[in-house]
Structures are given as C-alpha cells and as structure tokens.
Write a sequence for this structure.
C-alpha cells in the first residue's frame, strides 16, 4: 500500500479531508490505504511549520512518516521548493534511537491513581505532558516524573 499511497498522495495533495474521504470511498480503497493516504496528505503542511523538538519527534515517529517524507520531498522538488525541511526532519529521525522516539513510560494511569488523583480526562493531559518532558530530555527518572506530576496537579 505504500507505493499506492505515495502516488495518490502526490496526486491528491491539494485535497481537504472531506474530499480525500470521498475519493477514498469512491475508489474503494482499503481502510489501511485510506488511513495512510489521509495521514500523509494531512501531514504535508507540517513540513512548512516551525515545530519544536517534541513536535518534530512526534511527527517523525509516526507509522506513516516514511511515506510522508518521500511525498513531501517529491512535491517540493517538483515545485522548485527547498527540500531542506524534509532533509532536516529525516536527519532528526536518523539520529534518534528507538528509545528516544518512544521512551518507556515512567508513569501510567495506575501510578496517577496511586498518587491519589481521581481518574478522568486530566490523566491524558498529565501523561502527555510527562511524555513531552521525556521527549525533550527534561524528565529521565521516576522521581523527576513524580515531581512533574505534582507540579502539574498544583496548577
């Protein structure tokens, strides 16, 4: 499905989400192909954004990153645009170990519960902030994770 998604992504790169969905259904693409196509096309504007390191890591660790980078490189090259944003993100991905891209969780929802926090939507916010801090290299231990959680709860 990668080569089909690449070709379709180039052809449909200017389409919005509803148009992509409609075309995908009309062409009877498999769910995996449709999802890949949508993710790749919707990610193309991100190559023009200034992303912080955490957002860059979240972007390059996606399952569809390899297709998105090749499509962005092809589209930018054909349009005479700089491929430097693609090259920079590819270099970042190549420099990161699997552990740096997907660090082991230092805390889980069960840990938050054990700290006395009531389960709810704030768990997602807290755990996302904790992962962001890990990706940034600001939190590397369970003790630092607990301190961050305590500071987030006080806010």
């Amino acid at each position: 499905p990668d080569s089909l998604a690449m070709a379709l992504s180039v052809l449909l790169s200017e389409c919005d989400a509803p148009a992509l969905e409609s075309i995908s259904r009309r062409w009877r693409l498999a769910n995996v192909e449709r999802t890949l196509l949508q993710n790749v096309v919707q990610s193309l504007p991100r190559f023009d954004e200034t992303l912080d390191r955490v957002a860059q890591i979240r972007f390059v660790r996606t399952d569809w990153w390899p297709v998105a980078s090749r499509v962005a490189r092809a589209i930018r090259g054909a349009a005479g645009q700089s491929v430097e944003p693609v090259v920079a993100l590819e270099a970042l991905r190549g420099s990161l170990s699997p552990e740096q891209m997907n660090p082991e969780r230092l805390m889980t929802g069960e840990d938050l519960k054990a700290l006395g926090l009531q389960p709810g939507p704030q768990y997602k916010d807290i755990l996302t902030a904790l992962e962001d801090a890990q990706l940034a290299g600001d939190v590397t231990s369970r003790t630092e994770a607990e301190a961050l959680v305590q500071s987030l709860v006080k806010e």
